[in-house]
Write a structure and sequence with these properties.
This protein has about 170 residues and is of the alpha/beta class. It is built from seven helices and seven strands.
Length: about 170
């Protein structure tokens, strides 16, 4: 897999030799993105959308690298595209290098809020309703461990695809 540094990517983009494509969901992209990048979410991957960038270096980025690597593998088949993956991903890039949108809560903030609500439900449910509410933290703990191992958080991706996050501008 070919990788490229953020500085080299921006330099190539400024010379019109490259395009940075962020493959996160629309809401994740609107929360923070690399200035000048475009958003083509991996969840709605369409090979035809990438043909407009043939002849340019396509630089892929996502939150942690997992989705970008999957799209890289798909675009690398058949050598039709010149494609690289950004060495540092959104979670690694300093906030001063990102453009920040101020329209609503970020997906990360919504994720933390949702986890907090589930834990509060456990505490109140366990105390006032039934001891079986112990299942909530067991499920949360297991889910957080598994998603850390596989480096993909389906709950976070699900939150990013919620209706209130879909209508936001890129």
């Amino acid at each position: 897999m070919k990788t490229i540094s953020l500085n080299d990517a921006i330099h190539s983009m400024n010379k019109a030799n490259a395009i940075i494509i962020d493959v996160r969901e629309k809401k994740e992209f609107s929360d923070s993105n690399i200035s000048g990048s475009i958003n083509l979410p991996s969840s709605s991957f369409n090979l035809n959308a990438f043909y407009q960038f043939q002849g340019k270096l396509i630089i892929l980025v996502c939150q942690s690298g997992t989705r970008a690597k999957k799209i890289y593998d798909r675009l690398s088949e058949g050598n039709k595209f010149d494609v690289s993956v950004l060495e540092n991903h959104i979670e690694d890039i300093r906030m001063n290098q990102l453009s920040k949108a101020s329209n609503g809560w970020s997906v990360d903030r919504q994720f933390r809020f949702f986890i907090g609500i589930l834990l509060l439900t456990f505490i109140l449910g366990q105390h006032y309703i039934s001891p079986s509410f112990i299942l909530i933290p067991i499920i949360l703990c297991t889910g957080l461990i598994v998603t850390s191992i596989i480096d993909k958080c389906y709950m976070r991706m699900g939150i990013a695809m919620m209706p209130w996050n879909k209508g936001k501008k890129n």
